[in-house]
What does this fold into?
Amino acid sequence: SPPGERYEYQAEVSRLMDLIVNSLYSNKEVFLRELISNASDALDKLRFLSVTEPGLLKDAVDFDIRIQADTDNGIITITDTGIGMTRQELVDCLGTIAQSGTAKFLKALKDSKDAGGDNNLIGQFGVGFYSAFLVADRVVVSTKSPKSDKQYVWEGEANASSYTVCEETNPEKLIPRGTRLTLYLKRDDKGFAHPERIQKLVKNYSQFVSFPIYTWQEKGFTKEVEVDEDPAEAKKDDQDEKTEKKKKTKTVVERYWDWELTNETQPIWLRNPKEVTKEEYNEFYKKTFNEYLEPLASSHFTTEGEVEFRSILYVPAFAPSGKDDIINPKTKNIRLYVKRVFISDDFDGELFPRYLSFVKGVVDSNDLPLNVSREILQESRIVRIMRKRLVRKAFDMILGISMSENREDYEKFWENFGKHLKLGCIEDRENHKRIAPLLRFVSSQSDEELISLDEYVENMKPDQKDIYYIAADSVTSAKNTPFLERLAEKDIEVLFLVDPIDEVAIQNLKSYKEKNFVDISKEDLDLGDKNEEREKEMKQEFGQTCDWIKKRLGDKVASVQISNRLSSSPCVLASGKFGWSANMERLMKAQTM
Ligand code: ADP
Ligand code: MG
It folds into this structure.
């Protein structure tokens, strides 16, 4: 074949290939999972585009993936009938790393190195196309995009710093569309080129791929064939039984090769929830979202009535690390299908409000049009109903974690996603009733453990009407505030709001189970033990002192008053009834700086 045009890899790619090969050495077989997942992505892309551009399907071949192992020569070919790549795409996609899976891998590798290194985790990451070089020393990608009338061949070798691209000239190798990968296995890895081995790997790693995967398998059927009688036998028969000479048959196995469907193509969400095991849900989660940890919870449901859809939702075990004070609604966490066709995972609050954007899952609807666009999504009544139901289900799932016998689960949830729920108090009035029972706080009596509002309410004094809180910048400073004295004396519990967002969240909630939230640092705090007589006396006795102090302090304070709020401290700085709390003031100051 003519020499192709030679290109250098982007510098990071060579380094990445090295890393992949070295860190995944013990888990080489992931290469097949990666290449099948690329084939499946390519089929998804084509199926999606063809909804609006049926012309793309020109030579209407099926949507499938075929894998053939040539044992004698140690070659594996993986062919898909997906979207393929143009010449430019070949260079952009296979010569640079801008792609999700690989970027995530590099980050995971770095994180795990920083954390002391656990190579096992790495093996479970999406590492993408380059994983082909785990087992192959030469990889040829022959691909035809419907956007181009030519087919192109990319060719690369392990440990090389460059690759070539040329046009496919061999007419026998032309394909109507899609991509064929040919892996020339390394000497020690030729064992992968066995039909049974391939079959096992497909079943093991790719059972959730929603396109048929065929593997090239040797088959056999038995048949009866007539045989000429052995003259010696015949003679013996004649002597012993003197029977008539008859035709004899024998059973033989006829061998042939054919494609065999190797995966289960029914998507897991279409199955009956009663027949799906927890392990299967978790596997689906890990494979679909490239996660290496099990989710904290999952929920599989079908809704009926006005709008019908099926869904599996998950709560991840961890919030994505990084800029942790910014909640990013564009997470690719929800995969939307319409009649099993993958439509999009690119949402911006259409299916879940931003504060619940950590929820992952798949949603499959029969009621949306296949060519659903962003505009349709934003305006559709159906989507609004779906969103409502999804949000409700997500809350049920989180509530489930909070009621789990294993208290640690919810602690983990809260640590990762507590601030999301607090944001929900501010942004989603409609769901206050669902969010409030999920909130957790430290209190003056909880000994630094987190408690729920229900636990607080249960612990209220018989005549206590309100829920008390104090906002502070730490548990220690909350504990030491003089405002606590009287409440402590009366054994009344006080919530400590020590996260900057806590106070705003609580103020948005206003009340819980008809009990108002009351800031104990505000001037009009009424603990229901007013003694008017005595207050009058005190005012008379100390009125002049107050006037004197107010004069000395001038504008620094709004007023100086006698109060019954303290028991051991002589005085305290309190906020006005309608003013900001000291904590809010601190926050506002920090923001304007
Ligand atoms: P990722 O799948 O995370 O994007 P990969 O390294 O696996 O990263 O793949 C890189 C890119 O190469 C893909 O995003 C896709 O554009 C392209 N690609 C890989 N395999 C195929 C294929 N079989 N058909 C079409 N495009 C492909
Ligand atoms: Mg990939």
